[in-house]
Write a structure and sequence with these properties.
Strand content: 5-15%
CATH topology of one domain: f41 fragment of flagellin, N-terminal domain
Number of helices: 7
Radius of gyration: 39 Å
Distance between the termini: 19 Å
CATH architecture of one domain: Up-down Bundle
Strand order of the largest sheet: 1-2
CATH class of one domain: Mainly Alpha
Mean pLDDT: 90
Number of strands: 4
Length: 272
């Protein structure tokens, strides 16, 4: 049947061309953005999973930063403890020098003056801070919990050691007496040095644990990014082939629409 009012061929060609143009635009969006999902229409389920993975990646990055900051705190704490070790070693040396029978009372008084100055230096070290956070406990050792997983379920404790307690134990030693430091005083200083060594060992073990935690976070972040990429990243080779196909369909659809629109003009020949 030849009809003027209805041109179903033209309508079908126009419909197909419209769909091709929409798909062509989406293909261009994917290639230009590098992302397979540019709107929820592209893949609603994939978008939902990608959003959760992206949030996990951001939390992992934040946790990495927190762990690295905690490592920096421990490194700073160890630096203070290293200086405290030098101070204690000198104090122990002064105590031993004060036992020299050839030293006069005035000599021992000088030893005592230096010893007191070193005690004050140790006391000042116990008040050191990192970004406003105390490196050492004030009334006994305390523990700071460092979260080491993006879900907040895992943590590692780092110790704010009680350096002031060591200072208190050695602060009353008197080197100015006739006999100088006693064997008990020297033993007390040796014990203080041993306690300080224990603090540094604990500090080192906590740094090791946090370093491993930071490595694990880095691995987890890489895996999360890979999983998210498999969902959202466009396959350039496949999408380029699809773009070429859609370009051909668009050109063909345009030509067929033009042909379909010309078809009804054959009616004029019947009217001549």
């Amino acid at each position: 049947m030849i009809s003027i009012n209805t041109n179903s061929a033209s309508s079908a060609a126009a419909y197909n061309l419209s769909n091709t143009n929409v798909n062509l635009q989406r293909s261009l969006n994917r290639l230009s953005s590098g992302s397979r999902i540019n709107s929820s229409f592209d893949d609603a389920g994939g978008l939902a999973v990608s959003m959760k993975l992206s949030a996990s990646i951001r939390r992992t990055e934040a946790t990495q930063a927190n762990v690295n900051n905690a490592i920096s705190l421990l490194e700073t704490q160890d630096g203070v403890l290293k200086s405290a070790d030098k101070v204690l070693s000198r104090m122990s040396e002064l105590a031993q020098l004060s036992t020299d029978v050839t030293k006069s009372t005035s000599d021992r008084a000088l030893y005592q003056t230096e010893y007191n100055a070193l005690t004050s230096a140790l006391d000042a070290m116990s008040s050191e801070q990192f970004n406003g956070v105390s490196l050492f406990g004030t009334n006994g050792a305390t523990t700071l919990a460092v979260v080491t997983s993006q879900d907040g379920l895992q943590s590692i404790g780092i110790t704010q050691a009680d350096l002031a307690d060591i200072v208190t134990n050695i602060g009353s030693i008197d080197l100015s007496t006739a006999s100088g430091a006693s064997s008990a005083d020297i033993a007390t200083l040796n014990t203080a040095i041993q306690d300080l060594a224990t603090l540094r060992a604990s500090n080192g073990s906590e740094q090791v644990r946090l370093t491993f935690a930071a490595d694990m976070l880095a691995v987890n972040k890489t895996n999360l990014e890979a999983a998210n990429g498999r969902i959202t990243d466009v396959d350039i080779a496949s999408e380029s082939a699809n773009l070429a196909r859609l370009n051909i369909l668009q050109q063909a659809g345009t030509a067929m629409l033009a042909q379909a629109n010309q078809a009804n003009q054959s009616v004029l020949r019947l009217l001549v």
